Amino acid sequence: MAQATGSINSDYRDWEWSADAGERARLLQSPSVETVPKSGESQGSGLGATSALGAVFIVVNAALGAGLLNFPAAFNTAGGVAAGIALQMCMLIFIIGGLVILAYCSQASNERTYQEVVWAVCGKVPGVLCEVAIAVYTFGTCIAFLIIIGDQEDKIIAAMVTEPEEAGSSRWYTDRKFTISITAFLLILPLSIPKEIGFQKYASSLSVIGTWYVTAVIIIKYIWPDKELVPVEIPTSPSSWMAVFNAMPTICFGFQCHVSSVPVFNSMKQPEVKTWGAVVTAAMVIALFVYTGTGVCGFLTFGASVDQDVLLSYPSNDIPVALARAFIILCVLTSYPILHFCGRAVLEGLWLRYTGVTVEEDVVRERRRRLLQTVSWFLLTLLLALFIPDIGKVISVIGGLAACFIFVFPGLCLIQAKLSEIQETRALSWWAQVSYGVFMVTLGAFIFGQTTANAIFVDLTA
User: Fold this and answer.
1) Which residues face 268 on adjacent strands?
2) Are 59 and 27 spatial neighbours (Cβ–Cβ below 8 Å)?
3) Angle separating helix axes 124-160 and 409-419, nearest 10 degrees
4) Most buried residue, 64, 119, 220, 349, by CB count within 10 Å?
5) CA-to-CA dists, residue 74 to 69, 245, 291, 348, angstroms
6) Which residues, at least 6 apart from 95, have a Cβ–Cβ distance to it below 8 Å?
7) Longest dimension (CA), the chain
8) Collapsing DSSP states into helix, strand and coil, what is residue 389?
9) Which residues of the chain have pLDDT under 70?
């Protein structure tokens, strides 16, 4: 809403050379505010300036994040290294397929964001459901980020405080709820209030470096382990057939970059589906190596005793790991405002569409509404994070939503795109693509239903 005639964050040139995984926020410009006609956009500045190589790194950075901390536990849940890698490889086929489908539908519909594509191709009801899912997903991710802050600060404080355990209860300023709250109020809330988030791109670049550093530390600690780090037991097979599916939320949460993929595709110098297929394949292979390296090495280091947040399994006084914890905190501090911006943009779009008010008419009340949305969002996520200390429980819920972004909505878009084609005869390839779309929707619905039910009846009630 920086411009009266533009949708939220509609300058696609901002993608150029952005090393920030958080620039995924550009994914969520509000579809409720009409821009200048898209046919006019194709003339002049409509074409992006991002090269194919640049797009690869943007997609990689959008996929990588704090979710990698949960991958060793996911390998443990899946039943070992072989099961974990096999599950990733099988899902990767559909993850890449979903990214290609979204680019195809974006090109066909001439829309430039994920939810706009769903609106244009699938209609009003799936479009609204998609926006609601994005808002819930970003809300849950913000809760997970606050939990991660608490986890890392607990370990850092434990290394700094030298009081013996028998000295009695810990001091008030080392209490987890206090440290999360003071960090959130002093650092996260001020960063979440501004209308634009471009000023965070440099800090977020450090968070990307931090993510790679965490992976390097986990791999090095496995190759040259400390003497006291001896795994209790290393599972080699899943405990049950259904146990494998319990690892899916983490994988979906980790590889979910689909929502931000559409604007990345449209920011390319040559936004062609064939080129995009090569871009996302290269990006997902890189992400696969990072997640697999973290998952395998973290799992083999601690075995069945690995924590949901793998960094919690390391001693508090380990200097390289302490630096990794600091990087993760930095990553979360810059990512929370960006994810909040995403959710706020969707809520703003839903509100403007519901009221039928245009941006030009609503400028006066925008600031008041933005402050109310930000403070309410912040307080709710903070309150839930204080009383849900396990990041695995949050990921088990939002991982199911990630499956919808990866499988369900792209599958629906492919089905609708194919059904809208006017053909006298249906070729075999047409039926194959429709069948693929049906399979993706079915698979995504199964993953969402199974993981959500498991989260509600097992994790959240435990």
Assistant:
1) 50
2) no
3) 160
4) 64
5) 10, 10, 11, 35
6) 255, 258, 284, 406
7) 82
8) coil
9) 1-48, 162-170, 197-205, 207, 231, 358-364, 423-425, 458-462
Burial of residue 24 (number of CB atoms within 10 Å: 0-12, 13-18, 19+): buried
Q: Phi and psi of 185, rounded to 5°?
A: -70, -35
The predicted-structure confidence for 212-237, as pLDDT tens digits, reads as follows 899 999 999 999 888 777 767 888 88
84, 74 contact by CB (below 8 A): yes
Residue type (1 letter), 37? P
Tokens representing 160?
A: 């700094």
* Cβ-Cβ contacts under 8 Å for 283 (sequence gap 6 or more): 55, 56, 57, 59, 60, 63, 257
- DSSP-assigned letters across all residues of 368-387: HHHHHHHHHHHHHHHHHHHH
By CB atoms closer than 10 A (0-12, 13-18, 19+), residue 276 is: buried
Give the burial string for 66-79 (b: 16+ CB within 10 Å, else e). Answer: bbbbbbbbbbbbbb
Q: SS3 for 178?
A: helix
The span from the CA of 287 to the CA of 258, in Å, is 14
Coil, helix or strand at residue 415: helix
Residue corresponding to tokens 């390839």: 429
Residue type for position 287: A
By CB atoms closer than 10 A (0-12, 13-18, 19+), residue 339 is: buried
Contacts of 370 (CB under 8 A, 6+ apart): 193, 195, 344, 348
Q: What is the residue whose two structure tokens read 């933005």? A: 370
Q: Identify how many contiguous H helices and E strands the chain contains and give both numbers.
A: 18, 0
